[in-house]
Amino acid sequence: MTKIKVTQVKSQIRRPKDQKRTLVSLGLRKMNQTVEHDATPSVLGMVNKVSHLVSVEELK
Fold first, then answer.
1. Consecutive H or E run containing 25
2. What is the pLDDT of residues 11-57, one digit of tens each?
3. Alpha-carbon span 11 to 58, nearest angstrom
4. Could you give the 3-state DSSP secondary structure of residue 1?
5. Contact, 6 vs 41, CB < 8 A?
6. How far is 34 from 16, CA to CA, in rounded Å?
7. Distance between CA atoms of 38 and 58, rounded to whole angstroms?
8. Number of Cα atoms under 13 Å in the Cβ half of residue 57
């Protein structure tokens, strides 16, 4: 399964609670923090929801 690297690039301050919870569920709590996840449909949906706050790279 392919992996993705997700990095938080914008602050979660002044964002709706559901977006904050989505970042926490992805494992992102600080700016410029990076986490790796498998590219499952549920993870890709969460990344899509906060795509304006994160950057995504595909790992091989």
1. helix 17-26
2. 999 999 999 999 999 999 999 999 999 999 999 999 999 999 999 99
3. 22
4. coil
5. no
6. 21
7. 10
8. 9
**Location of structure tokens 């899509």:** 48
Residue 15 CA to chain centroid, in angstroms?
A: 14
Is residue 60 very low, low, confident or very high in pLDDT (cuts 50, 70, 90)?
confident
Are the C-beta atoms of 53 and 10 separated by less than 8 Å? yes
Eight-class DSSP state of 60: -
**pTM to 2 decimals?**
0.94
Matching residue, tokens 């392919």: 2
